Amino acid sequence: MNIQNLIESLNQHQDAIGDEMVQKIDFDQLEKDLSAAVCALSSMEEKEKLSEKLLSEFKSEIKRMALAVSRAKGDLDSCGLVEKLLSSPDLSFEDLLFLREKVKEEFNQSFPATPQSRVMVDHGESNFQISEFKTGVKT
Fold first, then answer.
1. Quick one: how far is CA 44 from the chain centroid?
2. How many CB atoms lie within 10 A of CB 70?
3. Residue 29 and residue 104: Cα distance in Å, rounded?
4. What is the mean pLDDT of residues 125-137?
5. In Å, how far are 9, 56, 87, 91, 116 from 60, measured between CA atoms?
6. CB contact at 8 A, 103 and 66
7. I need a surface site. Which of 5, 25, 86, 100 has the fewest CB within 10 A?
8. Spatial separation of the C-alpha atoms in residues 36 and 72, rounded to whole Å
9. Helix, strand or coil for residue 119?
10. pLDDT per residue over 73-102, tens digit each?
11. Between the ranges 23-27, 28-32, 134-138, where is the mean pLDDT highest?
12. Domain limits at 66?
């Protein structure tokens, strides 16, 4: 039984109980509907916990990128602004995605994944080899 059907069924039971029309109440169906409601609520609770964990991780990723960018640029005010936005109760999911995209763009500009230059590596007697140098990457 899907959630919408369960809600409608429970509303019908509630109306019958509210009107005190005991003869209209199907107690067997009420028991099944209440059992289904318990299962649905339990499943929803598990999904809520999972979504809270995912949201927390998503916000944490944005904070880490913003902090790295602000440290690289020497501007800690921008990181504080991002943290304030993330803690705002009015932040919608679309706004969160937009914020993540903007912070990610700044992060990628500050820490590019592509090589910035090429360096010569000396492997002994005139055995030079060109290797790529990436900023922010340990080798």
1. 17
2. 19
3. 53
4. 56
5. 41, 6, 11, 15, 28
6. yes
7. 5
8. 54
9. strand
10. 888 777 888 888 899 989 899 999 999 999
11. 28-32
12. 3-110
- DSSP character at residue 123: -
What are the pLDDT digits (tens) for 4-27? 888 888 888 888 888 777 777 888
Distance, CA of 100 to CA of 138 (rounded, Å): 26
Q: Look at the chain and report how many structural domains it folds into.
A: 1
Count how many residues are written for the chain.
Answer: 139
In a domain, 119, yes or no: no
pTM flag (> 0.70) = no
Check pLDDT > 80 for residue 130. no
- CB crowding 31-49: b at 16 or more within 10 Å, else e: eebeebbeeeeeeeeeeee
Does 14 map to a domain?
yes
Residue 124 lies in a domain: no
Q: Any long-range contacts for 34-38 (C-beta under 8 Å, 24+ apart)?
A: 34/10, 36/1, 36/6, 37/6, 37/10
Residue found under tokens 């440290």? 71
Q: Is residue 70 part of a domain?
A: yes
